[in-house]
Amino acid sequence: MIIRQAVSGDLPAILDIYNDAILNTTAVYDYQPHTLAMRETWFNTKVEQRMPVLVAEDSGMIQGFASYGPFRAWAAYQYTVENAIYVHPAHRGKGIAKALMQPLIEAARKQQLHTMVAGIDASNAASIALHRQFGFEEVACFKEVGYKFNRWLDLVFLQLML
């Protein structure tokens, strides 16, 4: 498996992974699948903002992707980013998210960012454990801020000082 910067040709695979997360998990608090045009806009924005989009590729197949983006829109938040890591459902539990995390953190440090946050559904024990392995600490838990799959969802925020 190699970890590399995504290219526009990776977007259909990235879209499939992301849409699976929307439709089948609480990793994304959204209801409707995204379109390829939406992913293209997202990708182009990442490129313009100099934000990485990393992919994990094995035998020509994209098995996961990771990125970060602005935490909030106001100027004083410019040194804080929020990360996102998604893995294809057939490849979860194989260390792909772990392989993506370190290069993502390194990219943030190289850009001289100050802190990285992660908003994770409180029921996602695997993602919370992954982030803790890399030194993220829980800083907040927002009760019942999302509603999906006929239930209220709690959102945990973790933070890593870079």
Automatic annotation (TrEMBL):
What InterPro entries does the entry give?
Answer: Acyl_CoA_acyltransferase, GNAT_dom
Q: What is a single molecular function from GO for this protein?
A: acyltransferase activity, transferring groups other than amino-acyl groups
Q: Which reaction does it catalyse?
A: L-methionine sulfoximine + acetyl-CoA = N-acetyl-L-methionine sulfoximine + CoA + H(+); L-methionine sulfone + acetyl-CoA = N-acetyl-L-methionine sulfone + CoA + H(+)
Is the keyword Acyltransferase assigned to this protein? yes
PANTHER family under this entry? Answer: N-ACETYLTRANSFERASE, UPF0039 PROTEIN C11D3.02C
Q: Which UniProt keywords apply?
A: Acyltransferase, Transferase
- Asked if the Swiss-Prot or TrEMBL record annotates the protein with the keyword Ubl conjugation, the reply is no
Q: Matching Gene3D superfamilies, A to Z? A: 3.40.630.30
> What organism does the record attribute this protein to?
Flavihumibacter petaseus NBRC 106054
Q: Where is the N-acetyltransferase domain?
A: 1-162
Q: Write the protein's name.
A: L-amino acid N-acyltransferase
Origin superkingdom: Bacteria
